[in-house]
Amino acid sequence: MVGSRILCGLAMFAGLTSLTSAGDWPRFRGPNGSGISTDSQATPVEWSPDKNVRWKTPLPGAGVSSPIVVGDRIFVTCYSGYGANFGKIENLKRHLVCVDRTSGKILWQKSVDAVLPEDSYSGMGIPAHGYASHTPASDGNRVYVFFGKSGVLAYDFDGKELWQTSVGTESDPHRWGSASSPILYKDKVIVTASAESESLVALDSETGKEVWREEASGLANVWGTPLLVQVDDERTDLVLGVPYEIWGFNPDSGKLRWYSGIPAGDQYSSSVVAVQDVVYSIEGRGGGSAAVRAGGKGDVTKSHTIWSGSDSSRFGTPVIYEGRLYFFSGSVAGCNDAKTGKKIFQGRLAGGSSSGGDGGGRGFGRGGGGSDYSSPVIADGKVYYVQSSGNCFVLKAGDKFEQLAVNSVTTDRESFGATPAFSNGEFFLRSDKRLYCVSEAGK
């Protein structure tokens, strides 16, 4: 029943935001950021470098942005020219790469010079995730990328640059860089330019011209991606998690409609999720969990809060499926009842190893992610979760903790900070070095 409501909601948003087709994974965490594949095809449970890895393609640089899938093409972003112990910041470039889905062959790639001065490769933030942390978005005709201080760009599917627009060149207070991914609404590209200008910005998807801008100091420590929530037949809210609160905006004008206090710290690194008009939040670093009904006006903390708790997931965004909310913290999997917030199970992942928090993982210092940045996704009734080490855990979705497998696509030293993309029984996973396609043998 909950699953059918999810399908209905995704269908409504498909009409609102894009011309993409069934089976596409056109933005961060798939259709409307749900993290759920609605395809009917079976997805693999087990794989290894010699089993069910259909192809692997070297990438021109590192990054923790996720791949997207539109038809027979895959798009992913990278950066090169500057990083740990190599290059000069003047040589920093970002890349958009277009890959043929069937063969894994790179069809084209476009490079963009960094707008300087850029945040240096030092401290905790930039070395952990690098300069390509924003997942592209596509409406089926164009692909849109956000490159931080270098702006927002649009390309056609042949790689022709259509426009480039700056949304700010400032830095966040910690100089950790930005990571929020663009989303699409009607004829707009909406970007959370938290580090660049402490603002939400909507651009015309055809021309790149600014449609509206909403500035707020509360956006300074935000790294999550906003979400479109259908409140009723007449109203859609643009919802974003920020320090200590959830905010709901009018996506047509950018004006704040409502806000709700939640258990969260002074940073908000994950993204909110929703089923119908209920928004769910789980944050780390002193944060917690909450379910809040979208809609209303002004402060809706008392009137719209459904439940709140102390669960934590750090960077990863939770996923909701058949009334259960799944989330991960290090090597611990959690599952709560989405309606009440009560714990259904908690289990420790077996096999593999977590990066262990804010560093020390494989690839730390290479822009691949010392922390576990990936978010869980659902496909074929299974929960998939990737750690920065490259271990991908497969759980059976249900009321009991049941780990089906732990797998890796490589034995090489690579770092995996991206959330996988699922499409028609296949899934696509990027590391700081390669893009992989995994599917059942013979399919």
| Strand arrangement in the largest pleated sheet | 16-17-18-19-23
Mean pLDDT across every amino acid position = 90
Radius of gyration: 20 Å
Count of individual domains? 1
For the termini, the CA-CA separation is: 30 Å
**Overall 3D shape:** globular
- Low-confidence segments, given as residue ranges, are 1-17, 355-370
CATH topology grouping: Lipocalin
> Main beta sheet: strand number and arrangement?
5 strands, mixed
CATH architecture: Beta Barrel
- In terms of DSSP E residues, the strand content is 35-45%
Which secondary-structure class do the elements indicate? Answer: mainly beta
> What's the total helix number?
4
The CATH class is Mainly Beta
Q: How many β-strand stretches? A: 35
Helical proportion, percent range: under 10%
Give an overview in words.
This protein is mainly β. It is 6% helix and 39% strand. The chain has one domain: Lipocalin, CATH 2.40.128.630. The strands form 9 sheets. The chain has a 5-stranded mixed beta sheet. A 4-stranded antiparallel beta sheet has the order 1-35-34-33, with no helix packed on it. A hairpin with a 5-residue loop joins strand 14 (199-204) and strand 15. The longest helix has 16 residues, at 2-17. The chain is globular. The two termini are 30 Å apart. The relative contact order is 0.15.
